[in-house]
Amino acid sequence: MIETAVYDTKPYDREYLARTAGAERISWRFHDLRLNAETAHDASGAQAVCVFVNDQADRACLKELSALDVKLIALRCAGHNNVDLVAAREFSLVVVRVPAYSPHAVAEHTFGLLLTLNRKIHRAYNRVRELNFSLSGLVGFDIRGKTVGIIGTGKIGRIAAQIFRGFEANVIAHDPFPESDWAKAHGIHYTDLDTLLAASDILSLHLPLSPDTLHLLNAQTIARTKPGVFIVNTSRGKLIDITALIAALKSGHIGGVALDVYEEEEGIFFQDLSGQVLLDDELSHLLVFPNVLITAHQAFLTQEALSEIARVTTEDIITLGTREPFLAGTTL
Which residues form the D-isomer specific 2-hydroxyacid dehydrogenase catalytic domain (predicted)? Predict the structure, then answer.
């Protein structure tokens, strides 16, 4: 049995991991708390730890895990910006992830957010529940004919672009590694970032977080966007400078914002804080705007995605856990 400490677990994590083929070869130790340097001691006796997006596997944490003789860090997500890969290599810790659990889930949620925000479906739902059938203030726009800028054309970005094309939108894209054959096949045109920002009625972000993409949308780049632009982000919260975003919402430059991620979501998202005072002033400010829609990092949350995350994570733990020795220093 491979002893595995699973951090930041929710009921669906326990359900899907426990019932996945091969799970009987793993001794799961589920923890509700998040992994960091202070909680790493709870992995004592484990060969592997399994973490999610808001766990913090920084150098101090990885040093502690290494001292506990943990050999494997299994991310049940695609992003890995919360893991210090240099330190992992230094401490001979193997790091694995789930690179593509369900790109359709995230791309479809992207479009769902946009439709809900644009057509005010959330506001209409609440009105009708109160027997208010007025249509005042619920005017949206057709997506057909609008220019949509896709920033990042990995698996998710390409699917999102194809969905927009299905609605007969004009789709342009920017990526440092363009997929030219795919773009040609779907009538999508690559362009430079400045041109995309200036031309797009809708911006959809599909990028990993890196030093190059940190605050990609900031005061300067937002100023170059088209007045009234709608922005959708289902990738990483820190792609957007929230202070600059709020300023552009206040000025009316931005027409609408739909977020499934937030720059400082750690300690907030995935928690039930109802009945408490939200101490994050910027998030509180965002929630006041009628043209802002926020979901709590749920774009991945489909049956298909959870099954794939559990399958890949379980296989990674079993495969690496039965080799002697572990693949020291192997990363993503």
Answer: 5-320
